[in-house]
Amino acid sequence: MNTRTQSRFGTPELLFMLSVGVLIVVVAFPMLLIFFNAFWVDGHFNVADVVRVLQRKETYEALLNSLILSGGVTVTGTIVGTFFAWLVTRTDLPFKKTMKLLFLVPFMLPAFIGALAWKMLLSPRAGYINRLFMDVLGFDGPLFDIYSYAGIILVETMYLFPFVFIQVSGALERMDPTLEESARISGADLFTITRKITIPLVLPSILSGALLIMLYSMAHFGTVAVLGVETGIYNIPVLIYEKIHQSAGSFDSIRTATVLATVLVLTAALIMWMQNRVLAKGKYQIIAGKSFRPTELKLRGLRIPMLILCIVYIGLTIVLPTVTIFLVGGLKTYGLSFTLENLTWANYNHILFEWDLTRDSIWNSISLGLASALITMFAGVIISYVIVKMKVRGKGFLEFLGMLPFSVPGSVIALGVILAWSGKFGINIYNTVWIILVAYIARYMAFSLKANSAALEQVHDSLVEAARASGASMAQALRDVVVPLVRPGMVAAFFLIFLPALRELTVSVLLYGPTTRTIGVAIYTLNEDGETVYSAALAGIALIIIVLGEVLIKRLVTQKNGA
Amino acid sequence: MAYIQLNQVTKRFGSVTAVDRMDLEIAHGECLAMLGPSGCGKTTTLRMVAGFEDLDDGEIRVGERIISSKAKRYYLPPEQRNFGMVFQAFAVWPHLTVYENVAFPLRIRNLPRAEIHARTEEALKHTNLLSVAQGSPDDLSGGGKQRVALARALAIRPDVMLLDEPLSSLDPHFREEMRFEIKDLQRRFGFSILYVTHDQSEAMALSDRILVMRSGVVQQIGTPLEVYSNPANRFVFEFIGLSCFIEAGLSPEGFHLGGTRYPWPEGATPSGEVIAAGKGLLAARPTEIDFQAEGGIRGEVLRKVYLGETIDYRVRVADTEVRIQKTRRTPGPSVGDHCGLRFTRPHWYPANQASSA
Predict the structure, then answer these.
(1) How are strands ordered across the β-sheet holding B74-75?
(2) pTM here?
(3) Does ipTM surpass 0.85 in this model?
(4) Domain formed by B2-234, architecture
């Protein structure tokens, strides 16, 4: 025993306290305030009031809609994701590798920009496709009304199915092919094997992907807000937004919002709990052995039709919406046809160089993204270090605090931040860019902790011990051994935060002030105000920034792996 | 009579010929082990017999029936070949119970309920799995899982059992036990076994005949004793058992090593071709070399290591090191001593033959 481990308050305890402090201020305190405001009225614990709020028509309708929408998206997204994952890993589909990459692209595209594009294409009266069918082809009514449950589910499915696709195609690729071969030699044909062996074995992956879709869709604001507003379809996040925005901070609307937020948190917690159970129960040992490549199902006559199906799907979900955004962004007035004389660069010029609102929004998003990514990256390293490497009591609590925001929907975090930092407790940063920054840090801390703890777990204690035995001090060992090995994790954390923050809407739409619009907020509000053309142009710019960012991270990551 | 027959079977992967014009016959109830270093084509051969790989040339028959033929472009799908197969990584299905795993091939065949039950129970009984039948195979050890795989293969009462390194994922002490169990089951059910392994002692213990392969080409087929005591070439000699080689100059009268001339050892004169080449390899098992004080091939002891029951010597002869193993009871020279070596069962091979190293 040396004296340092015996002293009651050394460096580990100091770091631990610091980490706990940061997480409590940023994460726990705002969350607790939500529950407090929901259940505590005039100094009393009050459940009756909560029940009354829940009995209001708008509240339970929002609940019901959230269930219908996220349920629908989960079902369709899981079917689509599983089917395409199977197609690119287990059949002789042409251009499988390319297709696999293309199916991941929708993940990069913000769903609300997709929703915007689909509104332009399929809104019942003005949508370009619907008008084509009514005006040119003589249909009586619109081909498809995107302002409907089906429309919202369709659009969300397009952008959320990769959750299942990634999980399932990964599982199928890692799966030991002899599991299927042994079924074949047992006498089962490929169809029976798919049904009785393959699908059951990847079922845990399918379910866990499905629950991710549900979690995301439940908390998703953008698509419902864009497509549901005309026909009055709203879910919980949209109702929270309306409560906060329309009623100028009246106590009743804040309370309603906190009750809704509580429901959302409980649902999310339930989904996370189910996901953990699925993952714990379904840990089949299906990865093993030397691998011959699995037998591919010969599609024969279906080979080309399946390829066409994939191309059409990718065309509809990626190409068509993207092209629409850029074209509409170039129109002189919304509603004109896409002819050369109707197109202009002026819109792009205007939003990039002339209009303060849009210029500010780009600047805000980039600086908020950078700042939150940097702060969260460094805080994440320290907290992960405490969690993974230090032997202090109560680090489980720390881990819980850090991972909490992972399952907490953005609207809830935003609401908590409003409650905490609007002056009630001495600090008022409402309507400033700082409140968004605080919310981003809380929201993305879990990403950083995941990336950094994964990297730190790779650094075995003996590496540090070897450095110490070679004569390095603890600080030198950290600097020369640990940090270089963890750097890839830090870089990953940075981009895992920077890129989503760049296109963030759910949180910032609740927190923005007159000069603190983010790109997402600017696109959304311009669209709400009927400035469809400018909204599309800005969305186009956002897409370019996002794609550039993604390409950059791919480059950096592959360089790291190559070294 | 040949039951399984491979005629001129060839398989190419890109520019690599994995199996080259292979001919092979396996009799009813015979156990044949295919032995060779990794990448020699033994697993590919097995997978062609199973039906998982097409042929680039040749054909495979079982009994009177053709099951794979390049010329006829005919391939019976694996699920219709009615073979039992056991894989290295067990490949038991973790989402089914032990019982369901074993019953799977029978259910696929839509057999009557009672028969499925009877045959499943029988297969479980013979593999000592009855007590864990309702459990998950994930709760079993490696040996237990491999037993499930064996039972599953047994359930269909196959004529042919294909075993793809079935024991190499097991702990060493399980391995020996399972060897006997497999042999026992074969005796009881009378199926033919085609067995792939890179473990020579496994091949020796289990099989009636051994096939040694290298780079897609069959080097030798024979009983374990034949292959061990009369290896067809340097590769087989080196691959099976311990070995040492001395390169020597040859002339019709005898061989010379480092300037010293020796007469042919007793009963071992190389073939005329080898002598004509002027150079050859003297091959011996380390246990088949004796020490003698006078005469013999002269060398100097470099190392002497006690390995318990045996003593391992390294003796320098001319410019090569020769390995010799003697039991600890045999008196031997000490390090630094000059000694004479007598090869009791020497073999001669052409000097340019490929090595397995």
Answers:
(1) B16-27, B2-13, B57-62, B65-69, B74-75
(2) 0.81
(3) no
(4) 3-Layer(aba) Sandwich (3.40)
